[in-house]
Each structure stands twice: as C-alpha cells, then as structure tokens.
Amino acid sequence: MKDGAKGPGPDGNLPLEPPPLPGTPDMPVHPGIDEFVDKDIAAREAPEKAKGEYIMEAEGLQMYFPVTKGLFKRKAGDVKAVDGVSFRIRQGRTLGVVGESGSGKSTLGNCVMRNLRPTGGKVVFDGQDVTRLEGKALAAYHKRVTMVTQDPFASLDPRMTVADSVLEGVRINRLADKAGEQALAERMLLMVGLNPKYGSRYPHEFSGGQRQRVSIARALAMGPSFIICDEVVSALDVSVQAQVVGLLQQLQQQLGLSYIFIGHDLSVVRYLSHEVAVMYLGKFMEVAGSDELYGHPLHPYTQALVSAAPIPKPSVDRARPRVSLEGEPPSPIHPPQGCRFCTRCRYAEKRCREEEPALKDAGGGHLVACHKVTGG
Amino acid sequence: MAVQEGEVILDVQNLQTWFLSGKHQETRLRAVDGLSYQVHKGEFVAVVGESGSGKSVSALSVMGLVPYPPGLIVGGKVLFHGKDLLQATDEEMQAIRGEKIAMVFQEPSTALNPVVTVGKQIAEALRIHNPGMSKKEAMAKAAGLLGEVGIPNPEVRARQYPFELSGGMQQRAMIAMAVSCGPELLVADEPTTALDVTVQAQVLDLLDRLRKKLGMAVVLITHNLGVVARYADSVKVVYGGKAVETGPTDAVFEEPCHPYTLGLLRAVPRLDLPRGYGLHPIVGEPPDMSKVPEESCAFAARCRYATDGCREGRPPMEEVGEGHYCACFHKGETLEERRALP
C-alpha cells in the first residue's frame, strides 16, 4: 500500500504505525478506490437508480412500546417512541436526524432498519413496502440496507477476527465463495482506510476510531445502497471523529450511498446531511435543507438547540443570540397535550396547549410544526 | 479577556503521574508527563485534550485520588496556596478535599450512591466538614442547595434516590454537593459529556453563575472546544500528558500556534460556516504514552511540521504573546495554517 512506503507523504506527513490512511482531505484519499467500486460493489448492487429518485420513504411511521403494570401485565399505556414520522430520502443523499436523548431518533433508525416492527405507518424502500417483511424477504432487505451503531466496543464480537466480522453477513447470504471472501475482506478494509493485513487481528487490538472503520467495512461488505448511521462518531475523539466523518462522506460520493445519519451533535449532523430533521418526543418538529435549517431555524426548539451548541471561536460565539431552554424533555409516556414542546417553549400560548400543530411548509420546502410560524 | 491578575491559588509544577504495569513494573505509562499550570482566584480555567491525554489523571493527581498501585505520582509539585499537596498527609488532604477543593465527576449516575437519598448524600458531606451541624440542619441546608442549583421542588427531591432524577438533575445535585462547603476551587471533570446539548448549556451556565457568586475558581476538564470558547478565561491544551499551548481563551482561539491546537480547531465542524466548509482531521490516533520516547514531542508522530529535532528533544514552553505560551519547535511555521482558519 502506498502509505506503507518510507519517507514523508505528499503533504509532508510521515508514515505512522499503524500507517495513516486515507479518508482525510489532508491525506491522499483512497488510492484506487474507483477500481474497487467498478468491480465489486457496483456489480453486486441492484440495478443502478437514477440519482434523485426517492430510495427510502416513510409515511406516518409509529413505534409504540407497551408499558405493562401488575401481575397480569395489564397494558397501562404506551411509550410513543416514534409517533407519526414521514420522510423521503433521495438516492445518494443524507437525511440527518438530531434530537436529545429520548427523542426517539434511534428507535426511528431501528424501525427503518426493520430491527423493530413498526406498530403503524409504513416504510417503502426502492418501491417496495418493507414494513411487514419477514424471513427471507427481510434478509434480502438487510443486504441492501445496513446499519452502523454508536459503540464500536460493543458492536464487534471480541472473539471474532476483524475479517470474520466483516464477512459475517456475506457468509450468511453466501455472496462469495471461499476464495473470494479473503479478497473481499481485504478490499473492504482497504476501502475504509485500514491496512488489509489487519483482517486476522481481533477488535481489542484496535482503537475506537479503527473499530468504527471496521464496523463501516462490515456494513459495506454486502454492497448496500443505504446505510443507517446511529451516532457513529459520538464515542470518538474530535480528531478521529473528523476522519470517520470524512470517510462516510467519501464513500457516499464514490458509491452513491444514501444515509440516515442520526446524532445529537448538531454540527456533525449538519456537516454530513443534505436535509436535517429535528426530532422531539417522537415527532419531527422541523425539517429543512441543512444550511437553511441552521441559517434560519424557525421552530423555537431548533433555535434553542442551535444556540446551545457553542462555536469554538470566542468572538463569533459571543456575538450569537442565546436562546436558553429551561427544564428537560417530558416523559414520552405522557407527552404534553397539544404541541409537545409547549411545556418548555417561551412562546407557548393557549392554542399550543390545546391543538397539536401539523408539520407544514413554511416556504421553499422548509417544514415546521409550530402554530406561531405557520399560523393558520 | 485580559491576562489574569490576582492571587495564584493552585500552582501545578511539572507534575508527572505514571501507571506502572508488567511483571517487573517495567511498562511505564506516562499519563501525566510534566504538566504545569496555574489557576488564579475566581478564574475559569479549561483543560482541553482528547482521551488519553492525561487531563483526567492530572485532576485526580491534584485531588490526591490517583489509585496506587498502579498509579504513582513520580514528580512535580501541586502547590495550593503555597502548600505542596503531594506532601500532605491523608488527614490534611481529607480536610482540604471537599472543603477547599471540590470535584465534580463525569458520570453523575456512577458518582452518586444509588441506595442513599440525594439529600442525605449532600448532608453527609456537610456534616463531615462541619462537625457541629445537626442532621436536621444539614438536611435543610441540603434542600436549600438543591434549590440553589435550580432543581424544582428541592424538599421533595432531597428525599428521592438518584435513579429518580434525570441525568441533568443528578449532575446538578453533584454540583450542589461540591459547592456545599464553599470551596475555593472546583475541579469539574467532563461534567456535561453524558448530557444533551440543551442540558449541557444549563449545567455550564449554572457552574459559571456559582463561580461568580461564590468567588471560586473552576478548572473544567473537557474535550469540547466550543464549551471552552464560551466559558473559559484561560485554556490549557494538553497532549501526551503535558500542556502544549496555554493562554487567555481569546489568544489561544484567535491566534493558535501549536500544530495540535490548530489541528483540533480545523477538525471540528462549525455551525456558523457554510456546510461545504472542509473538515481537516488530524491523521493517526492519540499516542500510547508508554511507547513515546521521553525526550521527544509527543505530537511529532501526527504532526505535519515534525522534523528529526522533534523526535529527539522536547520543545520548551515559550511565550508567544501576553500570557500565551506554546511548546513547539516549529511554531513560527504554523502562521500560514492559522491564517487559513475561518
């Protein structure tokens, strides 16, 4: 591999142990990635869709978890983790989902992934309703839609070599023969910027950032067209986080992947997403193009979120308006009457407490669920 | 902000904390490797670094809480009002800890005792440091403190167990406990890492308000550069167990000199810039401090400016501006990169 060579790299960086690898704008990126794309990934991918077509659609998606009480598990209520969420994602694009813990953003990811069976609404992938898939059909869906989760220490089996982890899905689905497997594992590792020789190592030999790369390699191995990224960089250090973010972005450009990128760090979510949805207690409060949402947040909750995230430049941060938010999100078992945000909203009035605002277009495709903004 | 004036209350000089392991204790992980910094009265100091940079261990060293074995403070001084805490007896440290220097930990859910009510835990701290105080008095004061840190219904909450409180409220309770004896210095180790952004802002605003009200100094250990920019008076950027750049917040953020500081600033996406604005990660991974040679710059392996000199000698801290110090042989060459910063 190129980076294994001695002497400074093109930008003056010296090779490291383990060698510094691509995925960073400062480093030569993925030498020869196109080669692999042509031969392997694209070949196994479903017929190429034209860019711009909707690949993933959700309509009124609901996920209620029953809360039981007493000896006979009498149903006492529901945790409305996801409560009527709709979105559409185009091929090759990213939908970012931000929200506080408990907002239902991970549950949403798991519903789309079909790790959970939604209690209402539907998910349509590539023209096919996948809401009720079972057995073989679900397995086929999981070849095309994969997931990367938050904790790289929990998501890899410590007793499996990295190559075995990467190949697990490929083996289950018999996508490659014995000879092809080894080569595939190496290519996948190379693609995510790891030394292909590391395949025989175990997860404990890797740092957090490297493990997350392995998780991404595993998600890529079956040649998916859609990846759900659930807080994938939250556990990583700042400098390493940027490497993984860069890698995801690059893979998207090279392979035409679509993502749902779930996170709580606004700046990271925005960086990767074309469109961002702000989630609060199981509902989307605001959905807009990434720059539009951060430039002109309309919902009071979004405004508070944007203002709560400090900017690492004192002169800029001091000049920004501060919108502080009191209290904490209420329980999703008993969400407030009317607008879910009314208990913490400084503009809340009588109507907000009585009538739930619908997600409406406030102009130019900028959707917002707030009586104050959309009026009506 | 201007260079801090006033009394120096904490003066950490060349602190070295190692973790020894292996059959003959031959593996020496230099978690803190010659860290020096000062904290003035009432100052808000931020210690920034990535995981493994030694920022938490340095705080534990100051508090005398490094577990031995395997941890060992092998050198340096921690002067609190001129008295070296590393030489203090256990009894002396117990009197200082909690009363003069208090600490707030990262995970409030593990730092609080799950089987004792929140009020009792605060009352316990109060009664240890004020032997004359009755249980009733202490409980009343505990409830008052919970109210002070912004917990609604403090009397009710004081009788509840930690699991009945949300993460943000648990951290507020920890802060109430930490400030209960009116410390001069509060060390907060990643107090908001487990919390949501909106709650993070609430907790940090609270810390800052209490700092001003009680006139205490705060040492905030964090990896979040945004938090530092918003709250701190001065910053210490640590890497590989020592400070690589220190100075007033404005100077360090507006005129960073050290390649690592620059790297950090270029690696975080910024909300105020257009989305397409490039992200520049630092190549490689944080160092294993048992392998980095002692006489070298710990950042050399990831540094674009590194030369043989960096791998053979440790760069000294040199003043680059008023109260602004940087430890780098190549700090003169970073100007261009600094200009490229948005």
Structure report:
- The complex is a heterodimer of chains A (376) and B (342).
- Chain A is α/β, with parallel strands linked by helices.
- Chain A has two domains: 1-30, no CATH class; 50-137 and 145-151 and 225-370, Rossmann fold (3-Layer(aba) Sandwich).
- Chain A contains 13 helices and twelve strands.
- Chain A has helices at residues 33-44, 105-113, 135-144, 162-172, 178-191, 208-220, 238-255, 266-272, 290-295, 300-308, 314-319, 350-354, 371-374, and strands spanning 54-69, 74-90, 94-98, 120-125, 128-129, 145-148, 226-230, 258-263, 275-280, 283-289, 360-361, 367-368.
- An eight-stranded mixed beta sheet of chain A has the order 6-7-8-3-9-10-12-11, sandwiched between helices.
- In chain A, strand 4 (120-125) and strand 5 (128-129) form a beta hairpin.
- In chain A, helix 4 packs across helix 5 and helix 6 packs parallel to helix 7.
- By secondary structure, chain B is of the alpha/beta class.
- Chain B has one domain (8-100, 183-318, 327-340): P-loop containing nucleotide triphosphate hydrolases (Rossmann fold).
- In chain B, the strands form two sheets. Chain B has an eight-stranded mixed beta sheet with strand order 6-7-8-3-9-10-12-11, with helices on both faces.
- In chain B, strand 9 (234-239) and strand 10 form a beta hairpin.
- The interface between A and B is large, with 54 and 52 residues.
